[in-house]
Each structure stands twice: as C-alpha cells, then as structure tokens.
C-alpha cells in the first residue's frame, strides 16, 4: 500500500490501542494521561523517528518533566513570596535551564524537553497531583508514547508497498 495510507492505517489502529490502554487497564495509575503519550508519539517522529527519535522523546521529555516539576515546587515554595510573579519566574528559570541543558547531546532537541515541561502541568493542574506524585505517571506515559511511535513506524514500513527492483 502507499506509504501515506500505510502510516495512516498504522497510526489509526495503534491510536485505538493506546487510548484503550489509558482508558481501561492503566486508568487508575495514569488517569487521563493518554495525551502525554500522544505528545511523545509525535515527538518520536519530530525527532527523526527510529531508535534515535524514541530516545530523544523519552530523554528530552523526561528531563523537561523533571524541570517542570521543580519549577512548580519553586513557585509554591521558595518563590511563593513573589506573589503573582512566582509561577512566571519559575517557568522562566525552567525555560532557561532547558536551553542551557541543550549543550548536552542527549538534550539537544529543545522542543522535546519543552513538551515534557508542558506535559507535567496536566497531572498537576488537572488531576491535582503533587509535583513529586506527577513525575512517574508523566514519564511512564512518555515511554508508552515513544514505544507507540516506534511500533507505528515499523508497522507502516511493513505495510508500505515496496517498489520493484
């Protein structure tokens, strides 16, 4: 089948499975975090696909989530005295750390870290999890998404009609 249809078939079918995992068997541990999996899945492709894309997604997004967790802790802790500026200052510090960390080759894809930084806000703000309680579910969701990226890529390649030699 043509590559575009192979990718659409692969992603469509696996999206059903990914969503089902988060809605049924993983619902109590990863409540509503399927969207983080989809961000990591997209990050896999955005980062070039293959093992490199999945590695970049997992490492970058996990690092970004850790930076985001610390930013939330700073905003509600040491920076709380800054009032309405506590969260903006914490986010600015986190963004600067992500940029500086890009000097490390595994963290050189800044958008991957930014996706993780943003993703951890969901379980903290929407599920009302403490930052330290949100980090593991966030990282597990990232890993699941990166795996789905890799699997969808392999399945699409397997379904693609190969040109005659």
TrEMBL record:
InterPro entries given in the database record: DUF1097
Keywords: Membrane, Transmembrane, Transmembrane helix
Transmembrane segments: 20-43, 55-79, 85-107, 114-130, 136-156
Highest taxon listed in the record's lineage: Bacteria
Protein name per Swiss-Prot or TrEMBL: DUF1097 family protein
């Amino acid at each position: 089948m043509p590559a575009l249809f192979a990718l659409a078939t692969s992603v469509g079918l696996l999206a059903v499975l990914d969503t089902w995992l988060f809605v049924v068997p993983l619902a109590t541990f990863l409540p509503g975090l399927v969207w983080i999996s989809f961000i990591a899945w997209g990050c896999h492709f955005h980062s070039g696909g293959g093992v490199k894309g999945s590695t970049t997604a997992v490492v970058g997004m996990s690092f970004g989530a850790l930076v985001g967790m610390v930013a939330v802790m700073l905003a509600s802790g040491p920076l709380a005295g800054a009032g309405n500026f506590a969260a903006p200052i914490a986010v600015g510090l986190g963004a600067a750390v992500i940029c500086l960390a890009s000097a490390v080759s595994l963290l050189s894809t800044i958008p991957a870290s930014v996706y993780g930084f943003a993703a951890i806000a969901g379980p903290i703000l929407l599920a009302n999890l403490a930052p330290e309680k949100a980090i593991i579910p966030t990282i597990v969701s990232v890993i699941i998404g990166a795996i789905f990226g890799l699997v969808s890529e392999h399945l699409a390649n397997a379904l693609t009609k190969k040109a005659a030699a």
